[in-house]
Amino acid sequence: MKFSTLFTLISTSLLLTACSTQEVANNKTEKLPKNIIYMIGDGMSMAHLTAYRHYANSSEQHIGLGNKVVPQTIFDEYFVGVASTLPDDDTLVTDSASSATALASGEKTYNGAIGLDNDKSNLTSILEHAKFKGMLTGTISTSQVTHATPASFLAHNESRHNQNEIADAIFDQHINYKVKADLMLGGGTDYFIREDRNLVKEFKQIGFNYFSELSQLSDMDQLPVLGLFAPKGLPYAIDSQDNPNRLLAMTKPALSLLNKNNPNGFFLMIEGSQIDWCSHSNDIACAMQEMEDFAQTLSAVIEFAKKDGNTLVVLTADHGTGGLSVGANKQYKWLPNVIHKVKASAGELVKSIFASKDIAKTWLDSTGFELTSEQLTSVKELKAQDKSKELYAKIMKFINDQSFTGWTTTGHVGDDVAVIAYGPQSNKFVGAQDNTDLAKKLLSYIKTK
Ligand SMILES: [Zn+2]
Fold it and tell me: Where does the UniProt annotation place the signal sequence (predicted)?
């Protein structure tokens, strides 16, 4: 461990001891959690939650019949508050690195920073504190392990783009002479297996069990574990028809493994990474399928926490992405049934149009609605001109217009995000707070161990 890391750990731990004494005094009647599961829906705005509620229940809605009740989702059931997400500059709109650092350490920083403050000093993450306290630790994401959110829990780097350096740091930076995480599942072989260094080999040499296929996860019976299931991020849920709920597939066996013969408890970060990626593309069908995987993962996590009785679950988002709106184009309606019928992400739709001899039929088969003759002509023209980027934007517009889905940007937004919590101390997350408060509260529970 570098001296600066050690110093940060010690100084932060002194500060947190003071903070935790206060917390314990406030909470003396309520037990503290043994395990902490922190779930982050990357790019998941409040509108994503509303849209998902209608999407999940669209077959049960009786539009126009009066007294319509849309059943709650798992997110609604445990909703307790909201969090602001602004970064430590004058932009008010955060990127995933700055917000993940805030969620991981309780400190705000500049956009792009991985576990560093504005002066580029290391900020100790909750995961690092947990390891320091002898807890088992893990991250699960559908992005690569080196991507902004998991990276902010596992490493320190001045830029989120230095993913090779981040992969190196995940192996090289230690706490108590050990790698910081006992379990890492996600994508990222491109960054772990390189010409200059094979980190998978190095992880195996220090005793890590390595998995490269999601189907192997049932064989996962011993920690530590590294699972890398794609060169970068995993394929989109909507394009993974054999196993769309891959976050759930990673999470279920991970929970049993982390909980096995573990008196000290565990800290696990689970990221629904690609809600953000689909929303950057303004691809509503892609985003809703990611929300489905995230919702099912939350259900499994809550089920585990209910059975365990000593697990605190906190779920939030790092920011909203896309400026999603439920309704668009001055029309007072939103049609989730249209979205249900779309069978592929925009990227895959473009590929199938380029490969197709009958565009009208290919489109109808993949989306469930017909193109107008005007739309069909414009698609044919863009295909003939080999303009895949323009075609991508055009077909997203067709689906968004057809379902009355609105987007204001292909970037992030500064809206407050949801806070969802269950388990011991979950009442401390009620109300409006800043994203750094979530980390500070979680850290206070770890510091009392
Ligand atoms: Zn993003």
Answer: 1-25
**Ligand 1 center to 320 CA (angstroms):** 8
**Domain range list for the chain:** 3-325+413-447, 336-403
- Distance from Cα 433 to the centre of ligand 1, integer Å: 22
Residue 411's SS3 state is coil
How close is the Cα of 435 to the center of ligand 1, in Å? 17
Ion ligand 1: residues, CB < 5 A: 276
For ligand 1, the distance from its centroid to the CA atom of residue 273, given in whole angstroms, is: 9
CA of 236 to the centre of ligand 1 (A): 15
Q: Do domains 3-325+413-447 and 336-403 have the same CATH topology?
A: no
Residue 58 annotated in active site: no
- CATH code of 3-325+413-447, in short, is 3.40.720.10
* Ligand 1 centroid from CA 412, angstroms: 6
| pLDDT tens across the length of the chain (449 residues) | 443 444 344 444 444 444 444 444 454 568 999 999 999 999 999 999 999 999 998 864 444 445 567 889 999 999 999 999 998 888 899 988 899 999 999 999 988 999 999 999 999 999 999 999 999 999 999 999 999 999 999 999 999 999 999 999 999 999 988 999 999 999 999 999 999 999 999 999 999 999 999 999 988 999 999 999 999 999 999 999 888 999 999 999 999 999 998 999 999 999 999 999 999 999 999 999 999 999 999 999 999 999 999 999 999 999 999 999 999 999 999 999 999 999 999 999 999 999 999 999 999 999 999 999 999 999 999 999 999 999 999 999 999 999 999 999 999 999 999 999 999 999 999 999 999 999 999 999 998 88
Is there a contact between 314 and 40 (Cβ–Cβ < 8 Å)? no
Give bridge partners of residue 405 from the DSSP assignment.
326
Does domain 336-403 match CATH 1.10.645.10? Answer: no
Which is the catalytic residue, given 45, 58, 96, 426? 96
Q: How distant is the alpha carbon of residue 290 from its chain centre?
A: 10
Degrees to nearest 5, angle at CA 348 with 388 and 192: 100
From 191, 258, 248, select the one nearest 222 (Cα to Cα).
258
Other C-beta atoms lying within 10 Å of the C-beta of residue 88: 18
